[in-house]
Structures are given as structure tokens and as C-alpha cells.
Predict the structure.
Amino acid sequence: QVQLVESGGGLVQAGGSLRLSCAASGRTLSSYIMGWFRQAPGKERDFVAHISWNGDSTYYADSVKGRFTISRDNAKNTVDLKMNSLKPEDTAVYYCAARVVGSSRYTNWGQGTQVTVSS
């Protein structure tokens, strides 16, 4: 079982940048596809981005494409989300999640980190 802990959230002005990091323990991340999700107040949790087990493939929600970049370092057991050109609508709790290669369901989730973008 892999445990995930997010960090790097905070308060930033619109147009600014933040880098979120997800650190894993318990198992190596190289067996997992990693994703980032977010949940704004009163809304459902939404997909943001995911990255393949070896980092060769990434996929983004349309709302963040061109502004966010997901990356991973399997040697360090970390996954990052670099967020540029932040907008107030990016305000949410951001979650890191893992799913086993070949599975369609994310089974491991972090506790989340708050990102607040002021206008």
C-alpha cells in the first residue's frame, strides 16, 4: 500500500505560480500511474492531470492545459504539479492519487493541499 502526502499549496495572486509536490512512502511509485485532482468548495472532485508510470505520457484537463505541468521522479518517489498563470477559478484543495498500471480506478489518495488564488 502506498501512502501519499501533498505539499506546496498556499495563497498566490492571479497570474502567479505554485509547485505542488506529492511524496510517496510504503511502495515505489514506479508501479503506479499518478494523477492530480482538485475539489473546489461545493463542487465535485475533478481530474487535473495524470502521468504514466515512466513519465513518457501525460494528460491534462482542458481547463489547465498549457498552464500546468505534471512530472515525476521515480527515484525520489515524488510527483510534482507545476502551476503557472494561476486563475481564481483554480482555487481548490488539490489531491495526489495513484492507480496501479492496468487499473482504471485510483485507489490511493493523499489528504490534499489547499491552493487559493486571489484576484
Summary: The mean pLDDT is 96. The longest strand covers residues 92-100. Residues 4 and 78 are 9 Å apart (CA to CA). The radius of gyration is 13 Å.
